[in-house]
Specification:
Oligomer: single chain
Largest sheet: 7 strands, mixed
Distance between the termini: 35 Å
Helix content: 40-55%
Organism: Saccharopolyspora oryzae
Number of strands: 7
InterPro entries: Acyl-CoA_DH_C, Acyl-CoA_Oxase/DH_mid-dom_sf, AcylCo_DH-like_C, AcylCoA_DH/ox_N, AcylCoA_DH/ox_N_sf, AcylCoA_DH/oxidase_NM_dom_sf
CATH architecture of the largest domain: Up-down Bundle
Keywords: Oxidoreductase
Protein name: Acyl-CoA dehydrogenase family protein
Structural class: alpha+beta
Order of helices and strands: HHHHHHEEEEEEEHHHHHH
Mean pLDDT: 93
Number of helices: 12
């Protein structure tokens, strides 16, 4: 990140979270989920409240600030950055609940930890006063430390629709399913519940999220169509991890260059190859940052026209593609030291690859949506 850029409260606090997350990264990997010390640091820094409406004590903050803060945490641990980013993102989504539902979710303050089951994996039966919700949701990051879960389900009505339902901890079961190569520390296990009553005031229409029409919206972050913003919360952790990999690679290769006069089995150090690898990878990481910065600027404008919604989707996917390519190149050229499972470079390589595989960051989907909109003339 540029020195002094965006030194707001969340960004400043994120440097502390980054150090805490780095110190516990191996522990989170082994536990396959966020550790208490890191969760506490993330909440204390203000990630959970970052996009909570001001009426409920939140910051109603912006995406530009969030990207910088998440990327800073990602320099310490991509899994911790993912958790921090989704805390803010799901908190923003909960702002679309009816007033009574918002008051219930944030009854104890704006620092409630919210997690999301974003796939429409459940079914909701209409009943008097609300819904009966059942289902099993995969990939619910941070579910073990959640206060509330926001779950997507299809309604069993004559005209079915998709809604999100807010359910408190204690009403759902956590199923241990997260056994992955990368992003191990996110604790993205499955969540299940059966025939749980959800009052009508704790349900919101997916159509409102997609359109960016939050009730009583008083901040730009609550007027953004979902597809204009969701990619950036997924991509920002990879930006921080990529920066950390570049720093670690530079340290390793600087040490190798200092020994270039020695005889080694592999022969003399290829200085030109090192220079080109560094310059190209650093440039691609910089390009990714520029793309995500522009995405954040568009999202922070509030209402976003369809063409820019599609461009934001494209840019987030392209940024992660650039980051994944740069990190892969650095890993392959770093030597045996970087192969150690606990090395920052090895973890970063696994984590960025894991992020790049997310369904919401596939370039084909974002590119075709953008191209077809633009080439058809809108």
């Amino acid at each position: 990140m540029s020195p002094g850029a965006g030194r707001t409260a969340l960004v400043t606090a994120s440097s502390v979270v980054s150090k805490v997350a780095a110190a516990h990264a191996a522990e989170a990997d082994a536990a396959r989920g966020p550790v208490t010390t890191v969760v506490d640091a993330v909440v204390e820094a203000g990630f959970a409240r970052h996009m909570v409406p001001a009426a409920h004590g939140g910051a109603a903050g912006g995406f530009g600030e969030l990207v910088r803060a998440v990327a800073e945490v990602g320099r310490g641990c991509a899994s911790a950055a993912w958790f921090a980013s989704l805390c803010a993102a799901v908190g923003r989504m909960a702002a679309y609940l009816p007033a009574e539902g918002r008051a219930e979710v944030w009854a104890d303050g704006p620092d409630a930890v919210l997690v999301g089951g974003l796939l429409p994996a459940g079914t909701a039966e209409p009943v008097a006063g609300g819904w009966r919700l059942s289902g099993r949701w995969p990939y619910v990051s941070g579910v073990a430390v959640a206060d509330w879960a926001l779950l997507c389900g299809k309604t069993a009505e004559e005209t079915p629709s998709a809604k999100f339902f807010a359910v408190p901890k204690g009403t759902f079961e956590i199923i241990d399913t997260w056994h992955t190569v990368g992003m191990r520390g996110t604790g993205s296990h499955s969540l299940a519940l059966e025939d749980v009553f959800v009052p009508a005031h704790r349900a919101l229409d997916t159509a409102d999220l997609m359109a960016g029409t939050a009730p009583d919206a008083a901040a730009a972050c609550h007027s953004v169509p979902l597809k204009a913003a969701n990619g950036i919360t997924l991509a920002a952790p990879a930006l921080g991890a990529g920066s950390a990999v570049l720093t670690r690679w530079s340290d390793l290769l600087s040490a190798k260059l200092a020994k270039q006069g020695q005889t080694v089995i592999s022969g003399p150090v290829d200085r030109t190859g090192i220079d080109l690898t560094f310059a190209r990878s650093a440039g691609e990481i910089d390009l990714a940052e520029l793309l995500l910065t522009r995405v954040a600027e568009v999202a922070d404008s509030g209402a976003v026209p369809p063409e820019l919604v599609a461009r934001n989707q494209r840019d987030c996917a392209l940024a992660v593609e650039l980051l994944s390519g740069a990190v892969d190149r650095l890993f392959r050229s770093a030597g045996s030291t970087a192969q150690d499972e606990g090395d920052v470079l090895a973890r970063g390589w696994r984590d960025v690859a894991g992020i790049a595989g997310h369904s919401g960051l596939q370039f084909t989907a974002g590119a075709t949506a953008y191209a077809r909109l633009v080439l058809s003339g809108g």
